[in-house]
């Protein structure tokens, strides 16, 4: 392992563990807003924590969110330190939190092979995927969402969103593994089939020719968003040829200069809430750079066999960590942590720390 990557890894390890709390994994430690249990942050961070063998912390995080699951199957988007859950953000019901709950659970089960815990969590995970299926309102194997209902909650998108449907596919696929682990062959076959249908539909509906488009409402929106495109590679939705085209698209538009930019081109002004336009929040999900996306890019490069590029990308993310001595949330186009009047990059940031740990382990075979 390169010395700079090793130095950043040690920082990320410490920062991720700093985000461990009594009941699970908090998003960050600096701001009151993020010093809480956020679903997607904790679930993505768990993928790194499992590489550290911190299985008890991941299990606590899963049990916390399962305990707040609604009868419908919906998992909270966020739980405060005093254990008050929130299920919506602005006007949209958040969908990816429920999908990522199943993804995190399955990653834990693959790591531990804990059939007793699988049995304990079976009904909860089944309710979660059944809730997701109710969001496919027109039975086309893709789920629809309302505005501001996924991780990019400052961008006006609705309908069938690539990022969310990649998470949906992964949840269906992973739940079939849970069923297989528990010997439930009928359910396993059903959810394997549903996952296959969703994968096919994503490729039919979103593939543009050399990348996946961003979302579809009344029409197709052909922005290139790195989140959904890279998750499509990571989750096995894209084949090798598609994956290489996506990665070349990232290089073509120099989105990896500070790994990694959210989208190309920028979304128009009217797709960002007016209150954010004069502020740095305008670029929060619209052109700023996120280390977790950089790590996902490195993982994707490694998966297609571009090993040296993967290691170079990992070193670029490591430099962002080492220059600050802490894992930051988000960076501007000069490679500096965002530090505006209202928007300040969270530190430490569990999501980025967990992804860096995962990427280092997968790329270096640690």
List the helices and strands and how they pair.
Blueprint: H1 3-18, E1 37-38, H2 39-49, H3 55-67, E2 78-79, E3 85-86, E4 88-89, E5 92-93, H4 96-112, H5 115-134, E6 160-161, H6 162-181, H7 185-206, E7 215-216, E8 220-221, E9 224-225, H8 226-234, H9 240-252, E10 263-264, H10 291-303, H11 307-324, H12 350-364
Helix pairs in contact: 1-11, 1-12, 2-3, 2-4, 2-12, 3-4, 4-5, 4-6, 5-6, 6-7, 6-8, 8-9, 8-10, 10-11, 10-12, 11-12
Mind explaining what this structure looks like?
This protein is mainly α and 366 residues long. The protein has one domain: Glycosyltransferase, CATH 1.50.10.10. The protein is built from 12 helices and 10 strands. The protein has helices at 3-18, 39-49, 55-67, 96-112, 115-134, 162-181, 185-206, 226-234, 240-252, 291-303, 307-324, 350-364; strands at residues 37-38, 78-79, 85-86, 88-89, 92-93, 160-161, 215-216, 220-221, 224-225, 263-264. The chain has a 3-stranded antiparallel beta sheet with strand order 1-2-3. A hairpin with a 2-residue loop joins strand 4 (88-89) and strand 5. Helix 1 (3-18) packs across helix 12 (350-364), helix 2 (39-49) runs parallel beside helix 4 and helix 3 packs antiparallel against helix 4. The longest helix has 22 residues, at 185-206. The protein is globular and about 50 Å long.
